[in-house]
Specification:
single chain; 6-stranded mixed beta sheet; 362 residues; 8-stranded mixed beta sheet; 9 helices; binds flavin-adenine dinucleotide; globular; FAD/NAD(P)-binding domain; 2 domains
């Protein structure tokens, strides 16, 4: 049996490990703290359409191809573990002023031109938005409904993938890898998220800090919205992702190296912006504030491809690593079989030339 080391046990590494083991590989995950990175912190939106913007066609195509795979992937997880990871079926982006409303029209047009027909967005007027989500602030003036854009509970996903790995005999090594050269395996998948360049210097991925809140519903408070709600408040992006027991409020975005301390200003802005969109959130319990490092690349597409004859990169998923899990799995399994998945070609790390392939300058 051919041996595979997966370095990093976040959603990317554990999903790859599970599916590679199912495909016949003898797999070991190396991670001193599996599931504790960005995958644990995230909001869980699967939002390539609402995040689309002119000029970012390849990111939209990559995200839409992964979104299309999510129902089947989630069904496989549910069949294996009994865990259903979906928490919302739709996304509603709302506009608070005329500039936001114009942006929604731009997104709708761009997605209309570039995404498959199954992923059309619908512009809503003030009354339609109010009818869809009655708890929204009266200042909301327009909306954009993505009826094919769901969200998952990323923490349920982390736990479910761990169970999936256990079931198919993936070995867990609770240790940090210092260098991939010392791993005595036939193939290696580098899935260390924002830290990937530490093991492969020059790899075009850097940490971008994000703070996020978890609010718990309290008896008597209005219930959470049924959909994911997105908005821009004072120029800052905001999203509200429903959970069984409340809502996730995200997220700030800073260049701060690997710092994951939660700042007072971050929490203050998130709460103020969230209340500007959904006033009743002030009645919820502030259950948790956390921060993580998004693994970001210069062009917001991930890095999935061969780094040399043995090592495959599966990192750089930025703001969309939960979304990107199913397509990444398919792309990595293809690479392990010495094939290339056409839908993931745009993510080939070769597009950046800051490191050399074939045993380059590590
Ligand atoms: C605030 C925030 C909100 C987000 N919201 C969303 C969202 O709504 N939707 C979405 O799709 N994405 C979202 N993301 C992005 C998403 O979380 C990431 O893209 C995704 O989790 C990356 O997964 P990963 O497995 O590559 O990395 P991680 O989850 O960070 O896992 C990397 C793992 O590698 C391990 N590791 C590191 N170095 C080593 C080493 N030397 N040896 C062994 N192991 C090592 C770490 O311990 C860690 O467990 C969000 C991110 C943040 C921070």
């Amino acid at each position: 049996m051919r041996t595979l080391a997966v370095v990093g046990g976040g959603v990317i590494g554990s999903a790859v490990a599970w599916c590679a083991a199912e495909a016949g590989w003898d797999v070991t995950i190396f991670d001193p703290a599996p599931g504790s990175g960005a995958s644990w912190v995230a909001g869980g939106m699967l939002a390539p359409l609402s995040e689309a913007w002119p000029g970012e066609g390849e990111a939209l195509e990559f995200g839409a191809a992964s979104l299309d795979r999510w129902p089947r992937f989630a069904a496989r997880i549910e069949a294996a573990t009994g865990i259903s990871v979906f928490v919302a079926a739709e996304t509603l982006t709302v506009a608070l002023d005329a500039a936001d409303a114009a942006d929604l029209r731009t997104i709708a047009e761009f997605v209309g031109e570039h995404a498959p027909l199954t992923h059309r967005l619908r512009l809503l007027n003030r009354a339609e938005v109010r009818a869809a989500e009655s708890g929204l602030a009266r200042t909301v003036r327009a909306g954009l409904l993505a009826s094919t854009e769901p969200a998952v509970d990323n923490r349920l996903l982390v736990g479910a993938l761990r169970q999936c790995c256990e079931q198919v005999g993936v070995h867990m090594a609770a240790e940090a890898v210092e260098t991939v050269d010392n791993l005595d395996f036939d193939r290696v998948v580098l899935a260390t998220g924002a830290a990937a360049a530490r093991l492969w210097p020059g790899l075009a991925v850097r940490p971008v800090k994000g703070e996020i809140l978890r609010l718990r519903h309290r008896p008597g408070a209005p219930p959470p919205p049924r959909r994911v709600i997105r908005a821009r408040v004072h120029g800052r992006p905001l999203y509200l992702v429903p959970r069984g027991d409340g809502i996730v409020v995200g997220a700030t975005q800073y260049e701060a190296g690997f710092d994951t301390a939660v700042t007072v200003a971050g929490v203050r802005d998130l709460i103020a912006d969230a209340e500007a969109v959904l006033p009743a959130l002030g009645e919820y319990e502030l259950a948790e504030a956390s921060a993580g490092s998004r693994p970001v690349t210069p062009d917001n597409l991930p890095l999935i491809g061969r780094l040399d004859d043995r090592v495959v990169a599966a990192t750089g998923h930025g703001r969309n690593g939960i979304l990107g899990v199913p397509l990444t799995v398919d792309a990595v399994l293809a690479l392990l079989a010495d094939e290339v998945l056409s839908e993931a070609k745009a993510a080939d790390p070769e597009r950046f030339s800051t490191y050399s392939l074939s045993g380059g300058s590590r």
